[in-house]
From TrEMBL:
Signal sequence segment: 1-21
Protein name (Swiss-Prot/TrEMBL): Glutaminase A
GO biological process: carbohydrate metabolic process
InterPro entries xref list: 6-hairpin_glycosidase_sf, DUF4964, Glutaminase_GtaA, GtaA_central, GtaA_N
The organism's taxonomic lineage, starting at the top: Eukaryota, Metazoa, Spiralia, Gnathifera, Rotifera
DUF4964 domain residues: 19-87
Name of one Pfam family that matches: DUF4964
Domain Glutaminase A N-terminal: start-end pairs: 97-308
Domain called Glutaminase A central: residue spans: 326-667
Amino acid sequence: MQRLFAFLVVVFITKSNDVSGDFRPPAVPLIVFSPHISVWSCSDNLTDSDTVHWSGSPLAFYGLIDIDNSQTYRFLGTQPSNIPPLIQNNVVVQPWRTIYKFSTPTNTIELIVSFSQPTSIEDPYTYITFDVRTLDQKTHNVRIYFEESSRLSINDKNEKISWNRIDGDITILTMNSYNQIPFGIRGDATRNNWGYAHLISSNKNTTNGYQGFGDNLRQAFVNHQIMPNDDTRKPRHADDQSPSSVFIINLNQVTSTTISSYLIFLYDDLYSMLYFEDWQIPCWRIELNNNITLLINEAVSYYQSNMADITDSNELLITLLTNTGGTQYSLLASLVTRQITGALTRTWSNKYNRPQLYMKEISSDGDVSTVDVIFPSSPFFLWLHPEILRDILIPVLAYANNETTIDYNLAWAPHHLGTWPICDILPDEQEQMPMEESANMLLMLAGIVQRLAKTDFLQPYWNVMEIWAQYLNSTLPDPGNQLCTDDFEGPSPHNCNLALKGILGLGAYAILLNSTGQTQRATIYMNQAQEHANYWMQAARDDENYRLQYDLPNTWSQKYNLIYQSILSLNLFPSDVAKLESNYYATKMLDFGIPLDSRSKLTKTDWTSWIAAFSNDQQQENEIFSKIYKFANESPDRVPFSDLYNASNGHVLGFRARPVMGGLFIRALLESPLIENIYIQPTKPSQRRGRVNKCELL
């Protein structure tokens, strides 16, 4: 805590930079706290289109403001289409908050709408805050209408939906699938259709709640009519006069002094993960005695402290990012923060009596904890919270160590655990990437150990790590015809970048051995890694660069794996290797970045940021990151920030909203000090008052 306070002092001294600028995100995160509750705006203005899931399927919210019972405007969504929109003055995306600023065409009222996400990944809710003031020095009567559509709690519009409400000091409007079948569906773009979506207000004096056909509720508000009674025709199909939950906030007389009000959107999925026949609940449930009322009360009671924590954490992170890489870098990293954390789910396992943490491979396969998706995200966690990365890897380690109902019998690390949210994959059903995943695991584990200065969590897994290291050593220096993480490019036997990863992975295992005093064995493995590195530098060399494959002269590829030598302070490859590659990449620069390799113009955002970071030329590093910024700012494809695109024209080539964007934090990891406890674990002890703390592993 003392170290955190020192960082916060820096923030308040240096936070003068304005990071909003003219940045146009490809899509804006609004409510993003899990893979299925992931709500985005994919337009310049919040009123240009309806909000959607990362996959593009509808997850609509609507917002209206009425002034003096005479003029109504839209500020969120496209409906009613005959109602004019407010003027959107700007949008700012911070790591844990998105802020929209609006004004009326006549400049009489200013409305600021904020979507704020608590920094703890256990908290499945978002605050929606409305700040209103007058701009014309007059007093105006203001009402706000906020609507949650029926799709938030179901996967398909043909499903039946039900709803109910609880009135009291706190008003809770709930919507849910009528047929609750946990783990009845799985997949990439699917959303949980079990659990309960709650829209919550803590101020019964100024806020009234309604549930019914959304079109009727909107028209009643616009026409200044008495609002309809709650609809009782339930359950019914979601596309049958689609029901909605609505709050109307009566701000009454508004002056030039800002009046603030807020709502909470909270989702309780009841069961979050089926881990090899183990039904696991969301972790907050074990801390709050399985009681949703306690979670709602906590979200309301700690609104002020949560909002202060979000503000402090945003200011701290933005300042550090700006000081590291400038305003554009800070904007990019802020944009992807919730994209990364929104792919995570922390659960509680009664079987193992511990929390478990999982990452979804969003938009590329829907797999659970894909190792070569966790790997590119690792700089984010190694910089901000290495314990989180450790916790993500432990279910993978446990699976490989035969702690589940599946007999894992492969000599290399798993690729993934199943298809979200069900872990049940057999070893021979894996997408086999032996060198890729084995090296990924060892590299990340070494990074965690170096930053935590702890090895006790590895104690059960030394046998499997030894098996992986032996596999790497026996296969190097040439991986042969293996898949690597860039499998979308097609086969690439004798891949030099993959071999590079394997060599560094072997060095990482030597680091792990050394950290537990096994110095003799560490030396043996490090010497083996050095022999393989020496071979690589000769066999992979072309005239001006290193090849795509050992057997293909006049080819090239991004050797992004080399960055882990810097992360782990390994010395297997001389600095000349990175310098030679960096100089060559400069000759391949296109309008939106550097292609992944000589086969096409496609590139990867995460890997490109890694090759930028091992450049010794600050100007070149800045130029590469400026190309990534240009892609985010100018790509014609309006989807959550993609990591796969055409470096020539900026068109997205498929992936979106993936947590691999944690790779962008590589620059901060290498150039800024390690930050402790600003992220995920709350910085204010009051936020955990009344909880039994069980969600931090080990």
